[in-house]
Give the backbone structure.
Amino acid sequence: MDEQTLRRMARDRDSDVRLEVARHVGTPMDVLRQLVRDPRDAVAQAALDNPGFDLRQARQLVIDADYLVKRQIARHPELDALDDEALVALATTDEGGVQDALANNDRLPVARLWNLMPRMSRMFFLKRTLARQAHKLPEQAERELVADLDTEVLRGLAGSSTRPESLEVLARHRDQGVRVAVVANQATTMKTLIKLARDRSPQVSSAARARLQPEPGKTSDLDVKWFFGVLVLLVVGLTFGVYQLHEYGARRACGDICQERGLVFARLARRGGGGRGSDTMVGCVCTPAQEAVTDPGTAPSNRDAPPGCSLEPDKGGYRCGTGHVLFSDPVMLGWVVSPAVLLVLLLLSGLLILRVREQRRWRHSSRSRNR
């Protein structure tokens, strides 16, 4: 289909014919600009969606366009292709539908518009739009918006910001709608939600409590943190048991073992060369009591070893109780596991106490509001 035919069909009374022209890939740009103003929305939208429609050449169209055309352009997937003048004209319109379309368009050049703001005479419309995409703003720009007096700006900021410090400030704002938006924001921290759960407004507090309560089949962030807390303390408890309480229990057991055989406990026997290798405990080193040594010149032998002991010349005494200081022994295993179990029980008790106290606060605040 040649260009002349397309131009003639673009003026046809039948809107279906104009729709075909708007969709045709060979339609010239000036014809597409004409069809964007078509009274039938489908024709105008098809012209905007045409691959040949170049927003860089649509400055005057944006400036002179009516509400419907501006709203369609605000939804365009290549919105950032507009030049500064057209972008300013679009962003400062007082039509709510255009503002909504801009705020919901992922291609809105937020940082660029913020830098253009000093050139605008109606900045409050733009601030409301930019606040709804605050996650794209520079940190300094967001700080300025947090201090803004326009409630609509703050509500948009509370719903889109991803900076916890900004949300914490907005959570203390006097406007209920701002605080409700903070509760709905997925970036709001658990600390801020807990504060809002005690808010004076029933709408804010109930929404915050709903966020704090996990959905059926899901786990809250607080539960996840407590789970990892239990896991960390369990590891610490086991480590403490292995390197501290196990040795303490082994020394106590060795003292009893040596005493039962009329010997004196000297030290723990360990694996490795001369006790200098692994720290694995394999028995007790017992030496004869001083008064039991009748002939210092006589070297002891295995025949002289008490029952359950063997002579260990390199260790300077007898090795006894080999099987009583290992992890396989129930008593030794208890020394290792008991601190970890105790720590976990203490932690779970603390969690239960905190949950009960928090529920009591919520019930108390609810009763106070209902009076």
